[in-house]
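Form P-L/3: holo structure prediction, ligand zinc ion.
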Amino acid sequence: MNNATSPCSDDRIKTLLQGEECDEAFRSAAKHLDSCTTCQLRIAELAADECDWMGCQAGAAVGRS
Amino acid sequence: MTSSPETRASLILRLPDAADIVAWDEVVAVYGPLVYRLARRKGLQPNDADDLVQEVLTTVSHSVEQWLRRPDRGRFRAWLLCIARNTAINFLTRPKHRALSPGGSDAANALAELAAPDGVSQEFEVEYRRESFRWASRRVRESVAPNTWEAFWQTTMEDRSIAEVARELGMSAGSIYIARSRIMTRLRDLVKQLEARDE
Ligand SMILES: [Zn+2]
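OUTPUT (holo model):
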């Protein structure tokens, strides 16, 4: 699934997470993600990891501040 | 919420050597509110909690260089918690605070809780995590477009569906996924950075 030649790759998702929004690589990855549910799920999966890492308590506390 | 964080920051920033080693403005931004909230939860009035924060940070500023020279110094937040607890005990046993609460029960209860260090340090850890998250959110929020922040906030903290938020913000589902994931990554990096300063 991380095949570099496949349009669906974690590398492309990393570009979306950390790359410059005006870069060509970012824009093409974003365009791909718009229509690819596999990559949407994958980026959401990575995002959920981050959310766990931050802890729900921390998140909930921000709402009250 | 509390009195001027700038004052507290400049207090500590006056220490040039210490400022080289730790990013004091960030430390103060995180620990000031943290000590304040703990103090409030222990029953201190807002003004007293504010005074306590000032005292804790003053003590830190006076002894931080010495602390930095200790080879066995451990983590900054353990040290700060220790100072906060001692300062609070000292604070609560002053006649002024005993007189404030009839029968001295509030101060006595607060003291009893402070004397049980395990509970306090656990609370302190939780507060620390919250505060570092708050600090990181403030910074990230200031640096992104309002829509990007909303996309993150609505779909994570408010638990709303991607499709719904996409419609509301006039964004594609794909850009919602990207926006919120980028924000989470940045939040995590900032919190880690802060954490790394305390290792
Ligand atoms: Zn894909």
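COMMENT: Chain B touches chain A at residues 126, 129-130, 132-134, 137, 156-157, 172-175, 177-178, 180-182, 184-185, 187-188, 191 (CB under 8 Å).
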